[in-house]
Write a structure and sequence with these properties.
Elements lengths: L1 H5 L3 E3 L2 E2 L12 E3 L2 E3 L10 E6 L29 E2 L8 E7 L2 H8 L7 E8 L4 H9 L1 E3 L2 E3 L3 E4 L6 E8 L6 H7 L4 E10 L2 E2 L9 E3 L2 H10 L2 E5 L32 E2 L6 E4 L7 H4 L83
Parallel strand pairs: 7-13, 15-17
Antiparallel strand pairs: 1-2, 1-3, 3-4, 5-7, 5-15, 6-7, 8-12, 8-13, 9-10, 11-12, 13-14, 16-18
Length: 366
Amino acid sequence: MEELILAGRVSVNGTPAHIGQRILHSDQVKVNGKPIRIRVAPPPVRILAYHKPSGEIVTRDDPQQRITVFKKLPPVRFGRWIAVGRLDMNTEGLLLFTTSGELANRLMHPRSQVEREYAVRILGELSAEGREQLLSGVTLEDGPAKFESIEDAGGEGANRWVRVVITEGRNREVRRMFESVGLTVSRLIRIRYGQVALPSGLRRGQAVDLAETEVQSLCQSVGLRVAGQDQARGQGPRRGSNSRNSRPPNKGPRRPGAQEWHSPSSVARVQADDRPLIDDEDLSQPHPDDEWQPSGPDAHLSHLGGGMKKRPQGPKKPNPLQTSWGAAKPAGASLSAPQRPDGGNRNKPRGGRPGRKPGFKGRKGP
């Protein structure tokens, strides 16, 4: 084969090949001008969950030099990151990225009926009549739209939180739907996309790779069959990984602007089902997305040096960031993984008398 390559008789995508050249599964290889069949395994599929803050835009290049989400993502070995839908600049929350264009198209397409759940803060009270209109359907400039469900999620004063579920993602659709019933959205956070919830503890501007089981489940939910469970070469746990089998690194102070992400412990290879879920012509059309995100408060602790105690609490308040499927898992945890009894807090105090500082045992005060 090397002699054929040196003689210029082998071409890749119409260009003469060279020794050591990497061949992808999508490349067309010809020998003496005749195409040959090569068996190259498709690249592993990765899915990234990113916590988008307000003020970032979902585009690769911006003429106005604004901050784009793609500059915050980790490098990818095969292919490139593809955004699963969009969030407008003022919308926060869960934004998925994948290396599979097929998977991204299926997750975005309205025919797949993939649920998007948002936490919405509105100015004013949603009346029973307005709620019924949003559930039965309202008419927007680009066609009818409706919510699958609306749940109250608390709030104080004029600001109220609601959680809504919708199965499509047109441009500013959630905001426009509330505007149609006379309400203004003051904050919009996407907390769930399909089976993936915004991980608790995932800071704004950070990303985490989905676990192998989550990748498989999400692919199967839109008709992509898992063809194997091979671990990607060079994609195992490394520094910064959230794998349960690797100890977290001892991090010093982060330098300003530094980004963090987590590497996958494993990935899945997928192939399309025999029966087509979506027509090819439908997949060629882009479908812009618009959705939301919030985060829960940290635990309040007692005086410094004492036992960790929560302040007395009144009736439990609704959490607008909790999805309709329940509380989100911590970043890096599998959707099906059981949680630690202490919620994963490694700094849980050991037994001992509250109020005494460790290391000062027996020392008397003045």
